[in-house]
Design goal:
The complex is a heterodimer of chains A (about 260) and B (about 375). In chain A, about 30% of the residues lie in helices and about 25% in strands. Chain A is an alpha/beta fold and about 260 residues long. Chain A has a single domain, classed as Rossmann fold (3-Layer(aba) Sandwich), CATH 3.40.50.620. Chain A is globular. In chain B, α7 packs antiparallel against α9 and α7 runs antiparallel to α11. The two termini of chain B are about 30 Å apart. Chain B folds into three domains: about 110 residues, Orthogonal Bundle (Butyryl-Coa Dehydrogenase, subunit A, domain 1), CATH 1.10.540.10; about 110 residues, Butyryl-CoA Dehydrogenase, subunit A, domain 2; about 140 residues, Butyryl-CoA Dehydrogenase, subunit A, domain 3, CATH 1.20.140.10. Chain B is α+β, with helices and mostly antiparallel strands and about 375 residues long. Helices cover about 50% and strands about 15% of the residues of chain B. The chains are: A alpha/beta (about 260), B alpha+beta (about 375).
Chain lengths: ~260, ~375
């Protein structure tokens, strides 16, 4: 089985309190912030490893981003994946979800396609949750998002459960397909020591825009991104102390009122 | 850091994740019930973390520096668990050097994979680790060794799968036997009884206790080595355990320092974080940081030399252990004060580091003894 896992490199969520926005470009100032593999994508790697153990085959990692993302791809390889492709070019910079999904589609196409394309349903930073279904559309493949359970008895068909606001939908999906996984899907293993030391010798290929076949330059980078940040506002996090008085029932009602005011805000 | 590279950064990241997800949740149970971290050792073995320092010909990585990074990171979360891993070289290095393929295959390889826990039984009530005074004896009877006597302060007592026991050879004996011998005793050997498990000030979860041997018979093939061992030879064999425990002291000091610094940068008096408000606090933090960095330089210099095959590190390894213990205790003690009232509260998990630091001065050889060894070489 030929599996692709799309990885996004995102700012370390543990350092979100240090993140600042550039008032002009309205983008994150990444200096001093560590970059990590977006945590939901690790669950996609875990699923890929389980499927490889069951059916054999290879796992390719595909990511779009600056050359420094090679470090996170090496980390992804340390889990037991076989090869990595980094789509890196200045022309690809400033991509929104649509341009990203198009670029990933071109990278996947370049490699001759896969039986299964796995990725985190939403990234830690942008969290649009658009890329899995957009990628499925570009590839013309069945795609399921918000997947919290995945079973495969034969290598040509999967049974998946999709999380909804008010329940769960179950689907049978014929491969090839694109699956957007959630963190509820599995528990991510630790890479082994051997995996870490072997990762440096595994193939990692950097592909520029020119390397991608019949790339439509109107669909990549800033030019291919219909979504632009219009503005932003700072949210001040602070602590406040409010004393609630009265009988227990009254106090509970008042507390509920205060909490719901935060939700509406 | 001068010794870091991309692989080591990846390794440290993996160990941090391992420590936070596998060890941190277990610390409270360890503190409250003295539970031994068997499951943590097993998982670390599966991931290849214990194999980091084992020789490559056995399937290990032969990397002391990486093992040091492992001990440092684990000890940031729990100095006790760090020392459980540090005790593995103590329990197996002499077994490795005895060179007997059967014993190595049966005991060392499973230890490397986290499937067995070793213990080194040395100290006796009559004279600490002074072999000349030992009363635990091994008599040669046909193709068996018969052990009688006792050991105290044995790390991993009652939890280990096997013990490497230092005995006086009972007369009459002749060459190749020397005045003392080192014997491997499986935990289930008849005649071996586990005595009292001590209730220590720190290292809750690390089992320290007494062993009794009463006509405890093991086959001659369990004889690891025999020698005319004097005190200086014991000390020479101590550099491995000394440098590994020093790594744990470094990690412990860093763990409590980082936690306290984060608190003091957030905790406010009025509108100002106390770290900004009080110069005395900032200077104390700076002083602690300098001590930690001095210790780091010493330890990783020694580990790098070991990886290069330079074993002429005895004095520096012993220095790392002695100074490491002092620095860990000083850092933990100051951190309690820096945290103010919160530093004294058990639930805030600062005082645990101080209690653990006290044990590091004695566990795996007293710093007084090691200082004496360094003095004797001047």
């Amino acid at each position: 089985m030929k599996i692709a896992v799309c990885l996004k490199v995102a700012p370390n969520p543990d350092q979100y309190n240090l993140i600042k926005l550039d008032p002009e470009t309205k983008t994150l100032i990444r200096e001093g912030i560590d970059s990590v593999i977006s945590s939901t994508d690790l669950h996609a790697i875990e699923l890929a490893l389980q499927l490889k153990a069951k059916f054999g085959g290879t796992i390719s990692l595909i990511s779009m981003g600056p050359p420094s993302n090679a470090k996170q791809l090496r980390e992804g390889l340390s889990y037991g994946c076989d090869e990595a492709f980094l789509l890196s070019d200045r022309k690809l910079g400033g991509a929104d979800a649509l341009a990203t999904s198009y670029t990933l589609y071109k990278g996947i196409e370049k490699n001759g396609g896969y039986d299964l394309v796995l990725l985190g349903n939403a990234s830690d930073d942008g969290s649009t949750a658009h890329v899995p279904s957009q990628l499925g559309q570009w590839l013309g493949l069945p795609h399921v998002t918000d997947v919290l359970a995945f079973e495969m008895d034969t290598p040509d068909c999967a049974s998946v459960k999709k999380e909804l606001d008010n329940g769960v939908n179950e689907y049978k999906v014929k491969l090839p397909a694109v699956i957007g996984v959630t963190k509820r899907l599995n528990k991510v293993r630790h890479p082994s020591v051997m995996g870490i030391f072997q990762a440096k010798n595994k193939p990692l290929t950097v592909l520029s825009a020119a390397d991608l076949d019949s790339l439509d330059e109107k669909c990549i980078g800033l030019a291919g991104s219909p979504t632009q940040a219009a503005g932003y506002r700072d949210v001040a996090f602070g602590r406040d102390c409010v004393e609630i008085e009265g009988k227990d029932v009254e106090k509970a009602a008042q507390l509920a009122k205060i909490l719901s005011s935060y939700i509406k805000a | 850091m001068w010794y870091m590279n991309e692989e080591r950064e990846q390794l440290v990241k993996m160990i941090k994740d391992f420590a936070e997800s596998e060890i941190r949740p277990f610390v409270k149970t360890m503190e409250e019930t003295d539970a031994f971290p068997h499951e943590i050792i097993r998982k670390a073995g599966e991931l290849g973390l214990i194999a980091l320092w084992f020789p490559e010909q056995l399937g290990g990585m032969g990397k002391w520096l990486e093992y040091g990074l492992f001990l440092e990171e684990v000890s940031k979360v729990s100095n006790c668990v760090g020392n459980c891993f540090a005790s593995i070289p103590a329990g197996t290095s002499l077994l490795l050097s005895c060179g007997k393929p059967d014993l190595i295959g049966q005991y060392v390889v499973p230890t490397m994979m986290g499937q067995m826990v070793p213990a080194s039984a040395q100290s006796e009530p009559v004279g600490g680790t002074r072999i000349q005074d030992f009363t635990c004896t091994a008599a040669i009877e046909g193709d068996e060794l018969v052990i009688n006597g006792g050991k105290i302060f044995c790390t991993n007592a009652g939890q280990a799968d096997y013990y490497t026991v230092n005995c006086k050879t009972k007369a009459p004996y002749s060459a190749p036997f020397g005045s003392s011998c080192l014997i491997l005793v499986p935990a289930n050997t008849p005649g071996l009884k586990i005595g009292h498990i001590e209730n220590k000030v720190g290292w809750h979860g690390s089992s320290t206790g007494q062993l009794y041997f009463q006509d405890c018979r093991v086959p001659m093939s369990n004889l690891m080595m025999t020698m005319d061992m004097d005190e200086s030879m014991t000390a020479a064999g101590a550099f491995g355990p000394a440098i590994t425990t020093a790594c744990c002291m470094l990690g412990g000091a860093e763990g409590v320092y980082e936690k306290t610094l984060a608190y003091c940068k957030e905790r406010k008096h009025g509108d100002t974080p106390i770290f900004q408000k009080y110069q005395a606090m900032r200077h104390t933090f700076a002083e602690l940081k300098m001590e930690i960095e001095m210790l780091r330089s010493l330890i990783f210099g020694v580990l790098e030399d070991l990886d290069k095959g330079d074993y002429n590190i005895s004095e520096r390894a012993l220095t790392a252990k002695v100074k490491g213990s002092r620095i860990f205790e000083h850092v933990a003690s100051e951190c309690i004060v820096l945290m103010g009232g919160n530093g004294t509260i058990v639930e805030n998990d600062i005082e645990r580091y101080y209690r653990d630091a006290k044990v590091t001065a004695i566990g795996g050889m007293s710093i007084y003894h090691l200082t004496d060894v360094v003095a004797s070489q001047l």
